[in-house]
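Ex. 9. Protein: Response regulator transcription factor.
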Amino acid sequence: MTTPEVPIRVLLVDDEQLVRAGLRMMLGADPGMDVVGEADDGAQALRLVGETSPQVVLMDIRMPRMDGLEALRRLRATHPDLAVIMLTTFDTDDMVLTALRDGATGFLLKNTAPPDLLAAVRAVSAGRPILSPSVTAQLIAAVSQRADRGAVTDARERLATLTEREAEVAQAVARGLSNAGIAAELFMSIGTVKSHIGHLFDKLGVDNRVQIALMVRDAAD
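Predicted structure tokens for Response regulator transcription factor:
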């Protein structure tokens, strides 16, 4: 007898009611998702997290009163295991890197397609960080400082442990290609791409695509 899937408990945090309605509609259409609450600012989100015990929080970066960054910092202090996906309208948002440094589990654009949004929620609930591949290159461009020599040497040494194919995948990730884009460019299946990226996480000691891209950039300095 198959055990029924336990729905993933999701809290929505956005000051725009229409955005929350759209997210609720997308998530509600999947039996594996359960929207347990909605908040219109960070302060309300902090209260609802305690009341509803979500596994995943989808939270806008820019909100009045308490924004997503401040709420993220406070959630990290009180609920370190909670998965938090930050949402934004802008693919070059200067707050994205701050959110990632402050412990965001993922980062998605608000126009992310429904299948990708659902996949992201499932990924972070399983402990896998997620980032919009289409904006990885822009995030890297936002880091304007050149790496110091120690970082360059470390990056080159880690990348030297990769196979030729893994190195090609790392370069493609650094250019912001999605899994599908990498598969098409390197003539491999999406499953094979995912396997290579998993190997990159393990060999390079990273846990998201931005860190892979940063390492590739550092090695090129």
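Check your answer against this statement. The chain has a mean pLDDT of 83.
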